[in-house]
Each structure stands twice: as C-alpha cells, then as structure tokens.
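Quick one: structure for this chain?
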Amino acid sequence: MTLNMAAVTVDLVLLTIRSGGLQVLLVQRGIPPFEGEWALPGGFVLPDEDLDTAARRELREETGLDPEAGHLEQLATYGTPGRDPRGRVVTVAYLALLPDLPAPVAGSDASGAEWRSSSAGLAFDHDRILADGLERARAKLEYTSLATAFCPPEFTVAELRTVYETVWQTTLDPRNFHRKVTSAEGFVEPTGATAIRDRGRPAQLYRRGPATLLHPPLLRPSR
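Got it. Here's what it folds into:
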C-alpha cells in the first residue's frame, strides 16, 4: 500500500501483570511493511471514526480483547517523517492498563499476538512509543488510582503492593504501604470479605474507590 497523502493511525501500548512481571501486548505483522516482525497493535483510522473509536476497534480486531476490561487513555502523537516507509503517517498512541487476561487471539492483519516482558527491536518507531508508555504508567501510579486497573474487581493490599513493586521495579515496605493506601481517601474501599492467598492467613479484600487522584501521592522510590 503506497500513500500519496498524510494518513492517521492509532497504536496501542497495552500493559498487564502476568507471571509476576509487567508485560506488553505485541502482535506479529502479517503484511508489509515489516512483515513477520513484532509491533504494537494498531492500524489506520477509518474515515467515519474518531480516534478513541479507532483505538477500541483495533484492540478488538487485533487481539480479541475487550477494551472495557481496563483503563484506556491517549498517550502522545508521533509524526517524525519516515517513521512509516509507506508514506507520511502520523500516529496517536494510546496507553491501556489491564488486569491479567487470557492469551490474546490475533486477527485482522496480525499473524500472532503475545504478552511479552522483553520487546526490543519493534517495527516502526514502536520502541520509542513503548518506552513513553512505560514511563507514563510508572508516573501515573504515583498520583492516581490507576494501579487498581491491573487488579481484579476485588483484591488484597498485598496484591496491590505487588502491582507497584512490579511496575516500579522496586521493593516497598508492606506496613508503610498498607498505611498509605488505606489512609488515602477514596483510593480503596473494604468489601467486608476476606480471602486466603498462597496458603497464608485471611486477608481483607478491597475494591477500587471513587477517587482518581491520590492526596498525598504515593511517591516512587528513587532507584
């Protein structure tokens, strides 16, 4: 496909926590350019679509995942000349935070889809887009409640702490973290139920609260 005028695409940075690590959803391209190489899922915006609609459609078509299963937001716009060998293409990237989900099913122009923890050497400029998405996720966990987007509807404080430790790649003090989380107004709410995790003692279950911003923020430890 050769483009004679500027076109607009959407690309998706989809993050989840699987097998104890932070993973990104990648698709193997089934068509040129970069056929056979791994890339972020995405595609061209159709004439009758707005950007958000295109992002949700691409998520469904290329992975079979439900866009309502987690958090989806615009990340940034990328328009460096030559980023796409087919012509002048500007892409609007989206960041999605999702709870642990089954293996995705490839569709549309993707020949494969996988959750991966290692992702260097992606097609187009997707290494840069992914790096920006990872930093946005790490930063937003400091001052918003989006960490709960990685969790199931009901979770323990220890499970929430694992999200922070995994995304920030650090170790947090359990007691200090519990105090900060439960004292942040509207961050989490107790369900009144308990659950036993990993053969331990019963732990209280929480759900995401109504707050979207954390006061004070959970500051990321320096590395």
